[in-house]
Amino acid sequence: MSESELFRPAFDGSPIGMIVLGADGALLDVNGAFARIVGRTVAALRTYRLRDLTHPDDIPRDEELRWQLDNGELPYFQAQTRLLHRNGDAVWTRMTVSPVVSEDGEQRYLAHVEDITEIRRAKDLLERRALYDHLTGLANRTLLLDRLEAALEARRTDAHTVACVFLDVDHFKVVNDSLGHESGDALLQEIARRIKGAVRPGDTVARLGGDEFVVILESIPTQAAAEAFLTVLAADIQVPFTLGGHEVVPTVSVGLALAEPEITAESLVRNADTAMYAAKQRGRARVEVFTSELRSHALNKLSIEAELRTAIREGELVVHYQPIVRLDTAEVVAYEALVRWNHPNRGLLLPDEFIEICEEANLVVPLGAFVITEACEFIAAHPEFTGRVFVNVSTRQIGSADLTRVVTAALDSTGIDPARLGLEITESGMLIATQAARSDLDGLTALGIDLIIDDFGTGYSALSSVLLNPVSGIKLAREFTLRLGDRGTGDRISTTVATLTRSLKMSGVIEGVESEAQRAIARDHGWQLGQGFLFGHARPADELDLGAVAQA
Ligand code: C2E
Ligand code: MG
Ligand code: MG
User: pTM of this prediction?
Assistant: First the structure.
């Protein structure tokens, strides 16, 4: 038996495609497996050259490799080559080619050919995963930065500019926590569809995770044109939408940043993010354009964050107390504890300048524990004061941060009666329907702590927060007090909430009373308790006249 007779059955029966090529690339021999890969017969294939079956894009590279083989630069080569199937499809193969010399001394090549279409497909899928957001199918951060970099590069030869738009869904956390993650996902998918529908076909839309989206406007003539586009986009997003049986009207806070010379993709996205943050702060559901003032504001925020950590440690925080009074007699029935920051260089800072930063930096939990302890110590240290103290708590203190434990510790260490302490929670916080939050609120109620809703009327869903949670009182937000006497919405809301409070047998406080006129109207509407500059500002404990306390 000659070598070739031995070799023959192995060649024909191999599950891997095999071909013998002549020095000119002619297919001298092929096996059945190879014939199946390209969908032709063995006989027909013997009339082909390999290049007739190779995808045109792969021919030059394969010929270069063969040249290197001939010159002894490579012992063999391996390449991913697309072959043309008879039906016209390109089939991805891995081809391993080694030189052989035939029995009669001719130069030949032996090639092993494996079909790797499936492997390629899996790889493509992985690449897709690496570049696209799986929930919405939009680009992810990697692809976004890539495209933005390319757009910025192209811009150098274009009179138009590149704009980056950062969008963040308003109150997304509330939807997610109260209606569940599936609803949250459905909302994000719908918003993704709406954004995608509003942009031009070439523009990139990305999701950065969470409820953040970014749009690149690749070639926009002016800032005004970008803003006009955003007005349309915002309107498209705000179309009502049914989610888990509830109608929601999604809104977004939007930041717009235009490319400056030499800006990098990352900085442009960061600028748009900074502008978006300003849009959130200025009341949400609006567009802000990035400016250099915003940049210094953002830097300021970073330095405040660093300083705050020290402030809490070094005892720079102080608590002031503002009276809550009977509207008829102005007698004090309670105090609201309001935190201040005694800043070493900048003087006394009010919460507006640092509470939000605290919340974002997760510092509000230690800050909250400090204020609660201070308030309890205040009560313990002043037996002549028999009223109550209300402490503001942020949503982030509830649930996973275990507010019940913090309050229990403060009560234990000071020995005060839990009925003397109350907590003010803003209503969007009260809505949080997670199990942990709910059991925390129930835990506080079991301790005998009153929970009241602060700034009633300004949050997400006012009435349900009262009905669904263990709430014993309501504070009407100052923005309604400002509108007292308007013979319109202001008056109507004030009257309605006063009536609601009474019929639910809750306590009601009207906030921000600054004038005798407001006090009179509030009393007229049925309010019994009030708070505001008319009765007193927040003051340090040692400046208060604590003996005179009325019964509420
Ligand atoms: P808030 O709980 O609604 O507190 C009432 C705010 O309105 C206080 O501002 C108070 O000084 C102010 N105010 C009271 N009466 C009047 C008035 O007649 N006119 C006007 N224009 N304003 C009045 P402040 O102390 O700057 O606090 C702002 C917000 O910061 C508070 O609003 C509360 O949400 C938050 N906050 C304060 N202390 C804490 C705290 O210890 N923890 C947390 N998480 N938040 C706090
Ligand atoms: Mg308050
Ligand atoms: Mg308030």
Answer: 0.60
